[in-house]
Design goal:
- This protein is α+β, with helices and mostly antiparallel strands.
- It has one domain.
- The chain is 62% helix and 15% strand.
- It contains 5 helices and 4 strands; from the N terminus they run αββααββαα.
- Strands 1-2-3-4 form a 4-stranded antiparallel sheet.
- Strand 3 and strand 4 form a beta hairpin.
- Helix 1 packs parallel to helix 3 and helix 3 packs antiparallel against helix 4.
- The longest helix is centred in the N-terminal third of the chain and has 27 residues.
- The protein is globular.
- The C terminus is likely disordered.
C-alpha cells in the first residue's frame, strides 16, 4: 500500500522536525554547552553555540519581546500555507519539498516557543570570513525551496505550464 503524497510529505516533516530537535539538544547539551563557545571540526567548519533572536542573518533581532510573537505567528501562517499546498500537490518532488519546509519551519518555531530564540550550531568560514551559523531546520528549508525552484524551472511545474 502506497501512502498518498500529502501523507508522505507530512511524515518527512515529522522526521525533519525530530532530527532537528534531537541535533539541537545533543549539540547544546553535550557537544557545545554554553560554557564553551566553539568546537573546531575542520579548518573551515566549526560547531558553535549561537542563539538567533531574529530571522535569517539575525534580521529583526532587536525589536523587543513582541518580535518573538510576531515571528512565531508569521512562521505558523507560512507553514499553514505550505501545508495547504502540500495537501493539493500531485507531484512527488513538491511533496518532498513541502515536507522539508514544514519540518524545518516547525523545528525553528519550537525553539522560539521554548527558548525565545533559534539555536544555531553549524558554522562555515574561509579564513576570517564567517558565514552566519545555521541548523538542520534551516538546511531543510533551504533544500525544500531549492527543490521547488528546480521543479518550477526544469520539472513538472514547467511541463504543466507548457501544457496549458
Amino acid at each position: 500500500m502506497r501512502l498518498a503524497l500529502p501523507i508522505q510529505g507530512l511524515l518527512l516533516a515529522l522526521v525533519v522536525f525530530l532530527l532537528d530537535q534531537a541535533s539541537k539538544y545533543a549539540l547544546r547539551v553535550y557537544v557545545v554547552p554554553e560554557a564553551w563557545s566553539l568546537v573546531t571540526v575542520t579548518p573551515f567548519f566549526n560547531l558553535n553555540h549561537a542563539w538567533n533572536y531574529g530571522v535569517s542573518f539575525s534580521l529583526f533581532a532587536g525589536e523587543g519581546d513582541f518580535r518573538r510573537v510576531k515571528l512565531i505567528a508569521l512562521a505558523l501562517g507560512l507553514t499553514a500555507l505550505v501545508g495547504w499546498w502540500l495537501a493539493k500537490t500531485t507531484v512527488w518532488l513538491q511533496a518532498i519539498a513541502y515536507g522539508l519546509i514544514i519540518g524545518g519551519a516547525l523545528g525553528n518555531v519550537c525553539d522560539r516557543v521554548i527558548h525565545g530564540a533559534v539555536f544555531d550550531f553549524l558554522q562555515f568560514h574561509l579564513a576570517e570570513y564567517y558565514w552566519p551559523s545555521f541548523n538542520l531546520a534551516d538546511s531543510a528549508i533551504f533544500i525544500g525551496v531549492a527543490l521547488l525552484l528546480w521543479d518550477s524551472f526544469w520539472g513538472s511545474g514547467r511541463k504543466h505550464e507548457a501544457a496549458q
